[in-house]
Amino acid sequence: MKPMKPTAESLQHLACYVFHCSHQLGDNMWLFTALLLWADPTKAVITLQPPWVSVFQDENVTLWCEGPRLPENSSTQWFLNGTTIQILTPRYRIAATSVNDGGEYRCQTGLSVPSDPIQLEIHRDWLLLQVSNRVFIEGEPLALRCHGWKNKRVYNILFYQDGKAFKFSPWNSEFTIRKTNVSHNGIYHCSGLGLHRYTSAGVPITVKELFPAPVLKVSSSLPILEGNLVNLSCETKLLLQRPGLQLYFSFYVDRKILMSRNTSSEYQILTAKREDSGLYQCEATTEDGNVIKHSPELELQVLGLQSPTSVWFHVLFHLAMGVIFLVDTVFYVIIHKELQRKKKWNLEISLDSGHEKAVSSYL
Ligand SMILES: *[C@@H]1O[C@H](CO)[C@@H](O)[C@H](O)[C@H]1NC(C)=O
Ligand SMILES: *[C@@H]1O[C@H](CO)[C@@H](O)[C@H](O)[C@H]1NC(C)=O
Ligand SMILES: *[C@@H]1O[C@H](CO)[C@@H](O)[C@H](O)[C@H]1NC(C)=O
Ligand SMILES: *[C@@H]1O[C@H](CO)[C@@H](O)[C@H](O)[C@H]1NC(C)=O
Ligand SMILES: *[C@@H]1O[C@H](CO)[C@@H](O)[C@H](O)[C@H]1NC(C)=O
To answer: Major location, coarse class (predicted)?
Structure first.
């Protein structure tokens, strides 16, 4: 009775087994991976084939439910708008959708808790902006498709965010933002040229922040003196709790790495040296590296010759210099006085010419 964790591969192969698709193994792999990125292994997951949460009326949609089950029981429960529907298979195919197929879908397998809901919308319009989801956690990919009614081709496609065009494509009606961040919040729409220029309705997209950019903090009284222990910590906090979500921290000085991808948000300089001075920065990332955030730089200066031993050295040095100066001064005064005295004496001798012998003996 080992609960099976759904893997990207198992879902992909399940989908491809039924649809005999081969191209998807490469192209859409990351989409599947992203959907299961921080998946709770006890929670069922719904995936869509094709992957859009809004479709035109009369189009076909298949929903897949993946989650831990009892080995002998593949029974799956499906819920639409909160009530169970009479489908018991992991695959729920809706052929030729009608307005009544729209709503909030959830599923549950034998050993799982109910999945997060998927809001399926059924539309009638000339042009529809299809999205892979409407709510994301930063780092997840957002796929967009500007889709014409009855699969009519449109050209010169423009994608807009909050009324501003951000992508033009002459032919390709699909565009993917590989790693979303909070700047991707907004209302999206698209326009394309068929017989006329058509414009889709707007789709609100929400990207939730996983954690804010970290701040590098130093817990040591400043200034840092040579020989001190310095604790650096890379502070941020998870805004969304996801099972198994783990942040990794790196520390840099002058853009050179000090500690790489550690689960500990702390870094210690055991005995600071003057060479440890520099611009410090830290980085927090998710395990897959899809979300990477840097702290602002922090300048640290380690001061030398200020430690207790060097202070004593300074005191003794100045004391010694003082003593030498004092002794010098005393000597100078003595010598000076002596010379003055001798000069006077010499003068007296030279005046007395009879004592030349005595002067030369003195000199
Ligand atoms: C939906 O699937 C049916 C086969 O079940 C197919 O005949 C039809 O063309 C499909 N419709 C669309 C819009 O792809
Ligand atoms: C489910 O709710 C949506 C509105 O959220 C509605 O359009 C749809 O008809 C409902 N479907 C059923 C089967 O009740
Ligand atoms: C399979 O599990 C479902 C609940 O998920 C239960 O209602 C059903 O009776 C089970 N069937 C068998 C054969 O055990
Ligand atoms: C630095 O961290 C260690 C262990 O994390 C702690 O024991 C020590 O008191 C800290 N020192 C300072 C100066 O914060
Ligand atoms: C992570 O940091 C801790 C203490 O800061 C250290 O003991 C450990 O070896 C580090 N792990 C790696 C993988 O660097």
So the answer is: membrane
